[in-house]
Each structure stands twice: as C-alpha cells, then as structure tokens.
Amino acid sequence: MQRTQVEIRPTDTDDEERVRAFLLGLSLHTQTHRFFAGLTRPSASMLRALLARDDRRDALVAVLGDQVIGHAMAYRDGVDVEIAVVVTDEWQNVGVGSQLVRRLLRRVTGAEWVAMDVMGDNRKVLAMVRRAWPHAVMTVDSGSVQVRAELTFAE
C-alpha cells in the first residue's frame, strides 16, 4: 500500500455515507480502541459530530478514491485541543494515522496543549504518542490513558 495514493482533506457534509460505511467496516477491536465500544449502527447525531467543523472543531478524512480509510477530529477549548483518530484495519501501521494527526494539529490555531484518551491496551497509539511527544504526561484511569502534551512547532 502506497501512502501517496491517500488524500487527506477536511470533512464535508457529503461524506456522511462514506464515513458511515468506514465505521461499519472497522473491526470490533478497532472500533473499541477508538470509541471505547463497538458500533452496530452509527447514529445520525454521531455522524454529524464526526463531520462537524467550526471555530472550535475540525475533522479530516483520509480517502483512497471514494473510500474513507481514516478519520481524525479535534476539539479546541482555550489552549487545549483534544484529538481522536482512527484508521481502517487494512491501512494501519503505514503512517496514515500519523499523517492525519500532523495535518490536524497544523490546522488548529491557538492551542498549546494536545490531549487524548487512549485505551490502555492500545500499544500502537501509546508508542506513537511516546515518539511524537516524549515528555507527554500519561495518567491511567479506569483502563484508559489520558495523554496531555505540549504542542511544539515540530509536530
């Protein structure tokens, strides 16, 4: 799989059905790592939240042709930005998630800190966090790890 085939772009309201199909195509393992639960049918309100973009929220999709293969979103609250990312099982471990995070953080203005909740057994994401933000503070709470790291221009 070549990363150059993947386009990363802001979400659009026309993406609703593509994002729905993407979510339903994720394995239960991947769904649980991203949403802390499996999804049987994503609700309309959930899809709207995943596509929302305004002065506090941003969302990106990684697409291959007409198929969504990754999604990342950010919510800015003052100097903090909370992010979440998920990549389809077939495209994990080839850099799509990292590309989504880097592009998303470049688009966030005014944020000084990045935060995310990660399932405690999600070793891949925790390893990515350690590489990207070696000084991140990680706090374990009820099986998840709350990550908080200072943003620098290196991201």
From TrEMBL:
Residue ranges constituting the N-acetyltransferase domain according to the UniProt record: 6-154
InterPro entries hit by this protein: Acyl_CoA_acyltransferase, GNAT_dom
Signal peptide (from-to): none
Entry's Gene Ontology molecular function annotations: acyltransferase activity, transferring groups other than amino-acyl groups
One Pfam family of this chain: Acetyltransf_1
Gene3D superfamilies named among the record's database cross-references: 3.40.630.30
CDD domains: NAT_SF (cd04301)
Protein name: N-acetyltransferase domain-containing protein
Lineage: Bacteria, Bacillati, Actinomycetota, Actinomycetes, Streptosporangiales
